[in-house]
Amino acid sequence: MRAKPRSRWLSFGSGVSVAYVFVHILPELSKAQITLQSSLNIGLAFLEHHVYLVALLGLAVFYGLERFANKSRQRNQKAGKGDVTALDVFWIHIASFAVYNALIGYLLVHREESSIKSLLFYSFAMALHFVVNDNGLRENHKQIYDRIGRWLLVAAIIVGWVIGIGTVIHQAAVAVLFAFLSGGIVLNVLKEELPEERESRFWAFALGTFGYAILLLAL
């Protein structure tokens, strides 16, 4: 099977998303771990790595969703129903990403760092991440994603932002949400970049990763 050429801009956007997680979110999670432990006031050993376990959970959840969608496409291909997921899988996938997008929208308001600079960096990285996710979801679900799915995901971002404006949560909860999001971002980026059939653009990915990392560290 011939490899599918991948847009350089998608690989660049993937690199920016990963850079944001590793340079900005994960160091903030390290600081937030102290807040989380003191807030919960529980002397359990596993809390020493609590936010990182949540990040691992985020990665595992979205890996499971991707495998679920891929298996559905393979079953439909074997049954002669086309290279697309089953309808029930579509709804499960879209519902999961709607929660994911709502979380991103929510954290527009409740971030670890509330400065304008932080907002701009976060918004830029997540906007490119949405483009990467959009491409992957369209590949799995085809026409029904364009007709219904993408609009539901756009609405989910707005809903999350509105909920964020109307609520105030503890800093420890923000840390947990960011941890889950960071795990999801890493998985959703790598699943788009790593498969050989995608013919990913390494140099575009590297430029996005290291260029944005340098920008985050410099400003």
End-to-end Cα distance: 45 Å
Envelope shape: globular
Largest sheet: none
Computed structural class:
mainly alpha
Measured on Cα atoms, how large is the radius of gyration? 18 Å
Number of strands: 0
Question: How would you concisely characterize the structure shown here?
Answer:
The chain is mostly helical.
Q: Can you lay out the helices and strands and say which pair or pack?
A:
Blueprint: H1 8-40, H2 50-78, H3 87-106, H4 116-141, H5 143-166, H6 171-193, H7 202-218
Protein name: ZIP Zinc transporter
Transmembrane segments: 9-26, 46-65, 86-107, 119-136, 148-166, 172-190, 202-218
Keywords: Membrane, Transmembrane, Transmembrane helix
Could you describe the 3D structure shown?
This is ZIP Zinc transporter. Keywords: Membrane, Transmembrane, Transmembrane helix. The chain is mostly helical and about 220 residues long. It has helices spanning about 10-40, 50-80, 85-105, 115-140, 145-165, 170-195, 200-219. Helix 1 (about 10-40) packs antiparallel against helix 6 (about 170-195) and helix 4 packs across helix 6. The model has no long low-confidence stretch (mean pLDDT about 80).
